[in-house]
Each structure stands twice: as structure tokens, then as C-alpha cells.
Amino acid sequence: xxxxxxxxxxxxxxxxxxxxxxxxxxxxxxxxxxxxxxxxxxxxxxxxxxxxxxxxxxxxxxxxxxxxxxxxxxxxxxxxxxxxxxxxxxxxxxxxxxxxxxxxxxxxxxxxxxxxxxxxxxxxxxxxxxxxxxxxxxxxxxxxxxxxxxxxxxxxxxxxxxxxxxxxxxxxxxxxxxxxxxxxxxxxxxxxxxxxxxxxxxxxxxxxxxxxxxxxxxxxxxxxxxxxxxxxxxxxxxxxxxxxxxxxxxxxxxxxxxxxxxxxx
Length: 265
Prior knowledge:
Elements: E1 7-10, H1 16-27, E2 31-36, H2 39-49, E3 54-58, H3 66-78, E4 83-86, H4 101-129, E5 132-136, H5 149-172, E6 176-182, H6 188-196, H7 220-231, E7 242-245
Parallel strand pairs: 1-2, 1-4, 2-3, 4-5, 5-6, 6-7
Helix pairs in contact: 1-7, 3-4, 4-5
């Protein structure tokens, strides 16, 4: 097992990509702090995973002290911390007209500042274990879509945080920091979100080749498989890296005018 007995915090792990990562690392022998906002989904996740190697915290990352409570729970339960996966995020639509100062601050608080505070809270324990931080970003960090302005800005900030700490922390604390930028992923909430945008019930079965050359979009389990590599010892000394996981190139690609009504993440 590639992660045997490693203690890992995975934020936002009661649904979607986070849940898939929690499931994958548990399969590789890890112990996981499961985190989310909804108690019912948290209880369902623990029932699905089993309680032997999981513990649950249901709390908003934007609350004062939540990052420290997540770290304390891991250490209290298992006596150490080996890895932190900053996956939780607020995926919310906005453009320049609908984004004001308070809204932008809230998105940055959840998507950029909370991960930073979690890293700070976890750092002394990660230093002891020569551990790793894995941030889950988005391909929208590179520029984003017109209707994902605040979200895209927050993911750009997270990417810079990864690059900066990924350079500094291996030298000062022996802790590696890397990031995965998922493309368009078929999560439960993405299915609901697109239906709310007016797409059909089975919209994901007929994705234009422009967005899905393979004929489908990514699955959460495929992001989770990549996450295991970055959390495991086999990724060696690699740090400060941001890896885009999408099925087409992002730079210099010509999207049609209606791109913002189709693509998401």
C-alpha cells in the first residue's frame, strides 16, 4: 500500500473530488480526517468508508479556528499528521458586474485564505513527518471564464501560494507543496449546477468534442488517482509543481463564443 498508516486531512471530502480522494487514499492504507459542511453527507461518507480509519469534522472552513480544529482532530485521533489536501472550495458564478468587494473577499477567504491557514496550522506536524501539502485548484486559475471571475481569481491566488511555498517549505521545513488543477469533472454538484443553467437531465452524455475530445468529461476517481501519486513517497522530492488535468491543451485554444454556457469547474 502506497499510503499505509499515513494520516491525511482532506477538506471538502463528503462529496465530489474530495470524497473520491478520501476513498482512494483509504484504499492505499491511509487514515483520513473527513471534512464537509453538511452533517448528513458527512455521516453517509463515514458509513461508506467505515469508521476504523476515518474521523469526521463538519464545519465551515471560513469559521475562526476551523483550520486548527482540523489539525488538532487528526493529531488527537492518531498522534501525527502526514499530509494535507486542500480541496474544499466555493464554486460560484460571478462576473465583473456581480462581483463586489464583500463577495470577492468571501470567495478568497474560502478558496485561498483558508488553505493558507490550514497549511500554517499543520506545518509543525508536517515538518515532523516530512509531509506533503496537495492543493486542489482549477484550470480556471490560468484566466478563467467570464462567468467565474471571483472563483478564477481565488484559484489563481492558490496557484501562486503553491508555487511560493513549494519553493520555500522544502528548504525550511522539509515539507513539499504541489497542486492539481482539474479540468471539467463530472461531480454530483456539477451535474446539478449544469441542470440549473438550463441544460438537459443527461447533458453529460452529449458533450461537444470541443470540450471532451474523448467523448466524456473527467471522473472524480481520475483526479483522485493522480492525487495519490503526489501524496505518496514515490513523488520523491518534487515540490512547487502545478499539474493541469484536462483532456485538451489550455493555452492558445480557440473556444466558441458560447463556451461559458457549457464548460465549468
